[in-house]
Task: inverse folding
């Protein structure tokens, strides 16, 4: 697929102004844009500008409320439970993370969970906020149910990513991954490319393993009640299915159970109704273990040992988590961010919808090659 | 392999008296036995009486010091770092978990990490301690390096299990799993049975995937510097290798980095020297999120939804984590615990070594079918 390269500044101006037009304050719009664009800068394309169309639909359909303000409904010195009241996930999550950082600075560690929210972007944005404050960060979220747990054919759990970050040099440890073996976006890519799914990725509505992306996506999107994506570890306990299922459960417990919110299987996808997404944010000040500089040095040495281990293939480098993202960030800040032509087309649509001059914001781009968005078809007008 | 069924009481008496003879106080011996036997009661055979021979060798060789007392070397109201001084892993871990529970009761949550320790048995014993106090528990440990991380052929990380438990009815959520795709013990079982390893389990010293258990075990035991077991998610990023590698990293960071102890690749296996194992214990009081009874009820409902989801195969039940263990515990407490004849033979050896009357403790058992222990060959006299 062809793509267009934009400078970070150009995309940031477009995103910020679009979210202002959607009804957010300029500070809120800047926060949302920052979360989205960090994903693009880190190379996590699925969670960057590519998601704009989903947020657009969610706001338009009254699932996300731009005027909602998060409310702390329970609080202790080390914790808080927040009701998002259907706010934009990014906004309540930045609020929650800042609260967790403040509490961690005061008491050493803190745990803030959130209910009644919406998609929050990349979990790793919030662990990066902890990193920027010199802290260890953990962030997690549940989602619509797409994961078929071990021996089930019904998707009960979400993609349920867990992110974990800890300061180190020259790159922090920054891990952010869905607990499904692959994200739903990967099935969409395989579908578009007419590629067969790999072994251990998905099951169809009968519970049998499936290599047919279209069929599995149909199960999820049509809410057939059966079929979906497998946990990391695949279908059988032999390959560790119960472990991925367990990590997904840990995510679910941290988010929906501690907040008293909706578990993934009770998320809503209907006009005018909030999704019910739940998040959690844990922040730990390394000072509670001793000298933060010594701890950072210890981790930095260990990460270098991992990177310089003997390679399975001399031509394939060994990475530590967050290294690729740090490299990508620097490169894209300098040289710009590639955006798929289909996403550009969606951005032009957003301009038209919001009464923004797309040529002024994005340039005069030929979008004839763009494919129509297949995402969130139930929301199409 | 044939086995002998013992009552819990009989095994407990044997283990307790053996550890007293090894030099522990009767209270310490009871604690160690409790950890070991919970593994057998839960059906986690690899970590029960089967491990006695390893503890025997470790004490005999001066790696574990029965007289060592754990020392708190750094402390805050929410945290502590403990130097185990080469104590028995179980003892320092019970001490650390009790400290974490005490702190969590006072401030809501607590994080205690431990360095310079030894093998601590099943991680889930310590999360069960948290459960018994009505708390959420997380426990983790690093180990000798056996995991070959993504794109590496060198084992740098350990088996690095993470355990997580939270109160629920009729069974708590109780998850305890190595972040390797399979534990080392599984390779030993396959080796004994002359079975080929499954895809995505292990690589040999060249970095190529291997189905040869003997060859891979040789890599680990002879410390060849290459070859070992893969993370959950297997060998390639396509199947989620980087995710299992990430979970193993989280374990490592929680244990060795926060405690300032030895990372898995710096563990020692030599006479007279402590292993350097590190652990971590996080305890969270559900009261910091609201009413613990409501939270427990919320989780209990969700677990039941998972168990009663549509099955992939009507004849194969869906479990939640900890359910099999709760069933096994009840059954074995009532009907006794099966111990492999080879393990019984090792127990007879321990009796002879310690001057205990094996017939009085274990009965007059024909151990002619027992295989010689292949474990820890470097320690053989």
Result:
């Amino acid at each position: 697929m062809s793509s267009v390269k934009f400078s970070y500044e150009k995309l940031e101006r477009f995103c910020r102004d679009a979210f202002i037009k959607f009804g957010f304050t300029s500070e809120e719009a800047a926060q949302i844009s920052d979360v989205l664009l960090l994903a693009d800068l880190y190379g996590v394309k699925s969670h960057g500008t590519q998601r704009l169309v989903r947020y657009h639909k969610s706001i338009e359909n009254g699932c996300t409320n731009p005027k909602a303000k998060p409310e702390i409904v329970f609080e202790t010195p080390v914790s808080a439970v927040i009701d998002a009241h259907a706010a934009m996930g990014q906004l309540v999550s930045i609020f929650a993370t800042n609260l967790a950082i403040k509490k961690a600075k005061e008491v050493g560690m803190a745990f803030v969970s959130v209910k009644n929210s919406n998609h929050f972007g990349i979990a790793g944005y919030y662990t990066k906020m902890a990193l920027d404050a010199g802290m260890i960060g953990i962030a997690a979220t549940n989602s619509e149910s797409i994961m078929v747990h071990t021996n089930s054919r019904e998707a009960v759990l979400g993609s349920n990513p867990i992110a974990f970050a800890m300061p180190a040099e020259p790159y922090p440890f920054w891990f952010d991954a869905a607990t499904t073996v692959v994200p739903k976006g990967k099935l969409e890519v395989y579908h578009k490319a007419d590629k067969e799914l790999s072994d251990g990725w998905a099951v169809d509505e009968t519970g049998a393993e499936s290599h047919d992306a279209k069929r599995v996506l149909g199960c999820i999107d049509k809410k057939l009640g059966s079929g979906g994506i497998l946990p990391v570890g695949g279908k059988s306990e032999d390959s560790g299915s119960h472990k991925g299922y367990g990590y997904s459960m840990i995510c679910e417990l941290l988010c929906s159970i501690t907040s008293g919110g909706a578990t993934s299987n009770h998320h809503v996808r209907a006009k005018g109704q909030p999704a019910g997404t739940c998040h959690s944010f844990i922040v730990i000040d390394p000072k509670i273990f001793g000298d933060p500089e010594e701890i950072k040095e210890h981790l930095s040495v260990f990460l270098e040992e991992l990177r310089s281990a003997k390679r399975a293939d001399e031509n394939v480098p060994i990475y530590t988590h967050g290294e690729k993202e740090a490299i990508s960030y620097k490169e894209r800040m300098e040289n710009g961010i590639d955006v798929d032509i289909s996403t550009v087309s969606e951005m032009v649509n957003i301009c038209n919808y919001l009464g923004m001059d797309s040529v002024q914001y994005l340039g005069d781009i030929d979008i004839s090659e763009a494919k129509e968005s297949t995402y969130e078809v139930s929301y199409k007008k």
